[in-house]
Amino acid sequence: MHQPVRPQWICAGCGAAWPCRTRKRQLVVEFTGARISLMLHLSAYLVQACEDLPHTPSGVLHARFLAWPRSAALRNE
Question: Distance (Å, rounded) from C-alpha 50 to C-alpha 23?
């Protein structure tokens, strides 16, 4: 299962930084046609990650949690 392990924010399924590639693909399918809902869902995780990883630059976390859905949506259009 590709869920986050906190407070490190690694994937329980593969050990990669969460969300991993597999979870990203799953999320795109799960939220097909509901990109705003996906962004809200990921935003909640971003807030938690910011609390757990206070020394990680916010831009890095933003890219990790919120930048990829836009590029994924553009590839599918």
Answer: 19
